Fold:
Amino acid sequence: MNDDGSNFWTTLDQAPALAKRALVGVLPESWAPLAGALVTVLFVCLFFISIFALLTLVERKALGRMQNRPGPNRTGPFGLLQPLADAIKMLVKEDIVPHRADRLLHFLAPVILVVSALLAFAVLPFGRDLAPVEFDGAILFFFAAGAGTEFAVFLAGWASHNKYSLLSAMRALAQLIAYELPLLLAVVPVVMLAGTLVPQGVVEAQAGYVFGFVPRWHLFEPWGLAAGAVFLVAALAEANRSPFDLPEAESELVAGHLTEYSGFKYALFFMAEYLGMTAMAGMMVTLFLGGWHAPLPFLEFLPSWFWFLAKMFAVLGLFIWVRGTLPRLRMDQLTRFAWKLLLPLSFVNLLAAGLWHYSAAWDVPAAPLVRWALVFALPAAAFVALARSLGKGLGPRSYRYAC
Amino acid sequence: MLTLLGFVVIALVLLGSAAFAVTRLNLIHAGLAFAVTWLAVGAFYLWAGAEFVGLAQILVYVGAVSMVILFAVLLTQLRMRATLPITLDDERRLGAGLVTAGSAFGLIAAAILVGRPDTPAAPHRALTARELGEALMGQHVVALLAVGVLLTAVLIGAVIIAAPSDPDGTEGGA
Structure:
């Protein structure tokens, strides 16, 4: 124990902030704000771009194992140098721009996409006091940065001067707009009940344990379960991940809005998609999985950033698992799912969250259990009713074979 | 000094992109330039300290309204080039345009200069979302509810206009 009450674990907890302060302390005083911002930006960018490289390998290995094959294992031990090989390949490929394509917009689309995806990382709370930027309305900023990605997808499809790209960009846009509403409506109960738009505030509202060992995360509250499920599905759709990867699937409209992109611009599109997926996973952890809090009281000594990253990787693993398991949704199934199921469900969940808030003052016997059951019954009943009504008339399939 | 420089830069981007948008014959280019204009309006809100409104502006306008405009252009236009003449065809139009724009500018400038309060403004503090919410649900709740009813009516009207006249699809044709 040092003089100011800190020990090895608390120092490790604040290690990124202390390292930044040490780096910036070398420079003169007046340069400190700018240098601090630059150091933060550089660190966040480099860290998450290396996460992206690692993630591509992990995904290919995991998908391979799920499909009963080993995945990349030739380049380096266990295929560890595969991302490097991919990067070199992308860099040396010829950058082809179609003759009648709009050169400036064709160039700008991947740039805007990567910029929007990287901007979203600015407000994630990576640990105790470790958010790069903190201001009121930061959660809104996260989703506003996501709106830039939709714009860039359309730009890519239109600027390619290819009817398949344009068609696919319009479908991608319809998908992104359709799932943006359930995404935002799933976040509204969290903001309502935490009472703040600042991610650190939302994380702090999830502190503490019920019965001494169950963490007070939003996912374990009845409205949070429904909202978390809706957010997970909508995040998969916003990141163009399977089962919602119609815009860029190999068997759909060639490669969708990416058809006319080659070389490093294609790599930038992929990087932006994985960065967006990582940012969505980070936001899911912040809003529903307790942020940087430990899951059990005796594990609190581990650094806060370790828990944030561990939970983020768990959510990313879930994304990869879903990709390897579920088949792709058709366009009309996709949009119907968003507008007819997820949207009414998120409205009902809003009501349920309001009921949870105002029923906190009840003093009925066994009040917590009654509250939990009642508030869970609302979105559950809505889900069952909606699913039944939407699936009416679609009986079990009968297969007829040609022979 | 730095805030004034920021204002000038944002204003130049805003006016420049808006001027670019209304003089383009290619409708998609015009739509994209408008998106830049709305981004600049969002930046202006952020410069003025209205963080919530600025971020909501970017989320709604750049994220959704620009998409609506681009969809509308793509689904209705065959050649995506405006056919109305944009170049000047009569000198008198220039004079009339300058008089109209000049008088509108003079009116707005006079309203701003005359309406300036005598006492100096209180120290500038950014409005938090909580204060905005409390004002909306407190003093201005009637306006909020009226806007809600209006938007619901608009939504229902749009659905009715867009819905096919034959829901079963048994009629032939498109």
Summary: Helices of chain B lie at 2-23, 27-47, 51-76, 91-114, 129-137, 141-162.
